[in-house]
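Propose amino acids for all 384 sites.
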């Protein structure tokens, strides 16, 4: 029965089919990834198993409000039903393999191993106003931005909904902290995994689940124009962040291959559509790279693009990666860039460089883990 369920409700991802032998038939052919089912899907699945719908509700709450990692922990569910659940479903693992905390204690990076052994990176940032978690949306990335460590090995696969949720739930379980903000700014291009991203957002903000406010979610994209338009139609209240990094197409192409596909003009038009549909102010990210995109002239050009828009600019001193020659801009240039934008009435902040002592830039912890794993083997480098 559950096989028809799997077909009807939950599509087995492509990568799982390919690797089915490696994982063991038992795990993926016959069981369903329960944490990727939304509330309605789980209710339907329980119904098909001949169970009462309130059991589905209880189980959904165990998974998404109490973030349990096994059926045994569901103490108001009978042993018999726990067994039945285990036969039909599995709870996807997000297992911590490493954790690094910055000296000031504000930032912790986590490396998580997934069911198939792939490793991803997530970050917990503690601010005065609450805790923010930065999650990955893919294993690797195929966007190829020059200054980014996440893209060096290319894309391995998309993350499932449960793997995106699992990063947040695991961080809460490990740290004992409640999470009030989620930013999809880790490894991967979220709009390259659009369907799972939208389902993830809906489930994270579902009142039967973790019930986070949509306004406390930010999704960062390198600017996949069709998807920005599509997102505008979803009528979500999340914040859209655009990785701009240059004020003209020629300069952008030098840093980001995606600029060969979409012009800045097309991106800004899509942002206007998003703003009109949602009323949400757009964020623009601009990583300052020494002698590349940090001149006063570029700040003036950027101001020309954004003037009059309800938006916010986040200046990020580029975090140099060893595979590239880029350097971060001098502080005087960063301040000057900020002041120039402000003179044109643009909202701008310089992103605090939290946790640089622990390689905070996207994908760097994972990259150094993979490098070391290659050299030394798995067990030598656990920090815990
Ligand atoms: N693919 C998405 C989200 C991932 S990266 C995107 O492009 O927006 C999150 C942000 O960090 C992006 O703005 C990205 O360009 C930036 N970034 C990546 N590597 C960086 C580095 N080494 N230094 C500074 N910013 C970096």
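Proposal:
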């Amino acid at each position: 029965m559950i096989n028809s369920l799997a077909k009807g409700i939950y599509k087995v991802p492509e990568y799982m089919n390919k690797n089915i032998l490696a994982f063991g038939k038992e795990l993926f052919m016959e069981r369903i990834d329960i944490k990727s089912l939304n509330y309605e899907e789980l209710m339907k699945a329980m119904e098909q198993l001949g169970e009462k719908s309130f059991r589905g509700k209880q189980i959904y709450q165990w998974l998404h409000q109490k973030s349990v990692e096994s059926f045994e922990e569901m103490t108001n569910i009978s042993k018999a039903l726990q067994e039945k659940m285990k036969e039909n479903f599995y709870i996807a693992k997000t297992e911590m393999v490493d954790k690094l905390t910055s000296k000031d204690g504000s930032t912790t990076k986590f490396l998580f191993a997934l069911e198939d052994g792939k490793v991803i990176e997530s970050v917990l940032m503690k601010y005065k106003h609450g805790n923010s978690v930065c999650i990955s949306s893919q294993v690797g990335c195929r966007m190829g931005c020059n200054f980014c460590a996440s893209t060096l090995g290319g894309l391995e696969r998309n993350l499932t909904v449960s793997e995106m949720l699992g990063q947040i739930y695991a961080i809460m379980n490990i740290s004992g902290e409640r999470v009030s903000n989620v930013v999809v700014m880790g490894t991967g291009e979220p709009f390259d995994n659009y369907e799972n991203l939208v389902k993830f957002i809906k489930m994270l903000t579902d009142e039967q689940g973790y019930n986070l406010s949509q306004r406390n979610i930010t999704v960062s994209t390198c600017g996949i124009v069709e998807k920005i338009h599509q997102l505008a139609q979803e009528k979500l209240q999340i914040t859209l962040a655009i990785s701009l990094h240059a004020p003209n197409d020629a300069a952008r192409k030098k840093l980001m291959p995606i600029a060969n596909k979409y012009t800045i003009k097309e991106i800004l038009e899509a942002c206007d559509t998003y703003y009109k549909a949602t009323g949400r102010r757009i964020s623009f990210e601009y990583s300052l790279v020494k002698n590349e995109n940090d001149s006063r002239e570029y700040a003036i050009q950027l101001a020309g693009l954004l003037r009059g828009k309800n938006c916010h600019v986040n200046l990020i001193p580029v975090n140099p990666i060893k595979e590239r020659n880029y350097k971060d801009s001098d502080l005087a240039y960063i301040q000057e860039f900020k002041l120039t934008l402000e003179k044109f009435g643009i909202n701008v902040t310089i992103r605090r460089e939290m946790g640089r002592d622990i390689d905070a830039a996207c994908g760097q912890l994972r990259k150094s883990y993979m490098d070391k794993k290659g050299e030394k083997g798995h067990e030598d480098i656990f920090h815990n």
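Residues 143, 145, 147-148, 185, 189, 220-222, 243, 285, 287, 316, 318-319, 321, 361-362 surround S-adenosyl-L-homocysteine (CB under 6 Å). The first strand starts at residue 32 and ends at 33.
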